[in-house]
Write a structure and sequence with these properties.
single chain, binds magnesium ion, globular, 313 residues, binds 3-hydroxy-3-methylglutaryl-coenzyme A, TIM Barrel
Length: 313
């Protein structure tokens, strides 16, 4: 941890950025869902505990999807049963349908996310559904969850591009977002599933989503780093006023139903930039990097994060 011992990065604030950012940690869900070898549930529980110890307060834990579709997360019930609840820490889970909600409610979940697609092709592949059909699947999930006092995030995938359809019209993404908000989703997470966004496109899409009625504090960004643009795109979103950023410890991640999806924006890379800008986030970078090195040893390969590699070197 040499660079940190010297007090780096130096802090130089920059105008037009938020004072505080909420990090929505997705390592245990998006990070692990793509791993071929099933990770032991006790390792996952320790990973979640270490993330909370490092100061993360919103930690996506798992998915209540069909176990055949994502075998890595088939242990969702066992995972939640083994997790010790902590004051001030939320453990959202992904839920696609009523069956998933039944399972999540039985497991005592208090925060869920539905996950929509901005394109027909990805709705077919990821949800076995059509673009319009997906809303019929989510509607009863969101209304039942809301009736139980459960907060619901709405993910939108393929917001900046889709491997089968190419560029995605920002107006189409905004329409999907408006449908999710009308349904009762309290937040929209704009997903760059395959990592093709660039900063001007990010600016344009956020403007379009806000123009369709979303408030700034209802918008989060979710960048995968396939083309090395995730941090530049995040900074652009922060300049546009977004204050919730999804990232994954160590930079793990991907989507089993979009082969070109690679790792998420690494939480450590995000934290390094936020520290340099003097933006509050509540995360202990050293403890987090140690956790990512620990997990990488269990997965049998180094963490993709540049910051983790630099600190561990
Ligand atoms: P389906 O096969 O069409 O389901 O899958 P179905 O409704 O026809 O049901 C078939 C059988 O599955 C039934 O059982 C159901 O009970 C059962 P049977 O009567 O035949 O015995 N079933 C379930 N069992 C357990 N849990 C459930 C469940 N649902 C049905 N929840 C489904 C439709 C949506 C379930 C499937 O397509 C699925 O699970 N998809 C999830 C794919 C996924 O998890 N992808 C990754 C997450 S999204 C992502 O990574 C992107 C994101 O990070 C943002 C970004 O980067 O853009 C969020
Ligand atoms: Mg993702």
């Amino acid at each position: 941890m040499a660079a940190r011992e010297r007090g780096l990065p130096a802090t130089f604030p920059s105008a037009g950025l938020p004072e505080r950012v909420t990090i929505w940690e997705v390592g245990a869900r998006d990070g692990l869902q793509n791993e071929q070898a099933v990770v032991d549930v006790d390792v996952k529980i320790e990973f979640l505990d270490r993330l909370a110890d490092a100061g993360l307060r919103t930690i996506e834990a798992t998915s209540f999807v069909h176990p055949k579709w994502v075998p890595q997360l088939a242990d969702a019930e066992r995972l939640l049963a083994g997790l010790t609840p902590r004051d001030g820490v939320s453990y959202p889970v992904l839920v696609p349908n009523q069956r998933g909600l039944d399972r999540a409610l039985d497991a005592g979940v208090r925060h869920i996310a539905v996950f929509a697609s901005a394109t027909e092709s990805f709705a077919n592949r990821n949800l076995n559904s059509g673009l319009d059909e997906q809303f019929a699947m989510f509607e009863p999930v969101v209304s039942r969850a809301r009736a139980e006092g459960i907060d619901v995030r709405g993910y939108i995938s393929m917001c900046w591009g889709d491997p089968w359809e190419g560029a995605v019209d920002p107006a189409q993404v905004a329409r999907v977002g408006a449908r999710l908000s009308e349904m009762g989703c309290s937040q929209l997470s704009l997903g760059d599933t395959i990592g093709v966004a660039t900063p001007g496109h990010v600016e344009r899409l956020i403007a379009e989503v806000l123009g369709a009625g979303a408030a700034l504090d209802e918008v989060a960004v979710h960048f995968h780093d396939t083309y090395g643009q995730a941090l530049a795109n995040t900074l652009t979103a922060l300049r546009a006023g977004v204050t919730c950023v999804d990232s994954s410890a160590g930079g793990l991640g991907g989507c089993p139903y979009a082969e070109s999806a690679t790792g998420n924006l690494a939480t450590e890379d995000l934290v390094w930039m936020l520290d340099g800008l003097g933006i509050e986030h509540g995360v202990d970078l050293d403890a987090l990097a140690v956790t990512s090195v620990w997990l990488a040893e269990r997965l049998g390969r180094p963490a993709p994060s540049r910051v983790v590699r630099a600190l561990a070197g």
